[in-house]
Design brief:
Strand order of the largest sheet: 3-4-2-1-5
Largest sheet: 5 strands, mixed
Strand content: 15-25%
Shape: globular
Oligomer: single chain
Order of helices and strands: HEEHHHEEHE
Number of domains: 1
Structural class: alpha+beta
Helix content: 55-70%
Distance between the termini: 82 Å
Length: about 180
């Protein structure tokens, strides 16, 4: 091969590599956009299914999930103190799921999230080791998940961390001492 041919070959290979790099970069950024879009679609689905399964509007209420040393807490409240309709719907839902969870039935969160949340299989298995205590609050209610079983505590924490992420509550995932 002559020097001129070597130079042409080098230019062709460089051009080919540059083209492949551009295509790969474009695909990767498109994949990130698609992944972000899919994540937004999933969150919209969680909200829509949640409204149907829970019986109240997510945009009129707030969800919070707290990790405690003895388990955790699910809190739901109406944003507007005068919204007694949402308050009553929240209370009905939380009383219902406290009973269902105690029986090992986690159908509601599986329907809302379109998958089995982490921790649920262990929570089902250890259902008699976990107490689910419903309590009314001024604008809604809460369910305390209480246990002394270390495996159940770990499962509850996995479940609540998943809820925090999937509902995008912004709650801390750190474990706090039970008051």
């Amino acid at each position: 091969m002559t020097t001129k041919q070597n130079l042409r070959l080098a230019v062709c290979i460089s051009s080919l590599l540059a083209t492949l790099w551009v295509i790969n970069t474009a695909s990767a950024s498109g994949g990130v956009q698609q992944s972000s879009h899919q994540h937004d679609d999933h969150h919209a689905g969680v909200n829509k299914r949640g409204d149907q399964v829970m019986g109240f509007a997510h945009d009129k209420t707030t969800h919070h999930f707290r990790l405690r040393t003895d388990g955790g807490l699910i809190e739901v409240e109406a944003k507007d103190f005068n919204d007694t309709k949402s308050r009553d719907q929240i209370r009905t839902h939380l009383q219902h799921i406290a009973g269902k969870f105690a029986a090992g039935d986690f159908t509601a969160p599986m329907l809302i999230h379109a998958k089995t949340p982490p921790g649920v299989p262990t929570m089902k298995q250890l259902k008699t080791a976990i107490k689910y205590q419903f309590e009314e609050t001024a604008r809604g209610g809460q369910v305390r998940l209480v246990t002394s079983n270390s495996k159940a505590i770990t499962a509850i924490h996995k479940f609540l961390r998943f809820q925090i992420a999937d509902h995008r509550t912004g709650d801390t995932t750190k474990i706090t001492k039970t008051p």
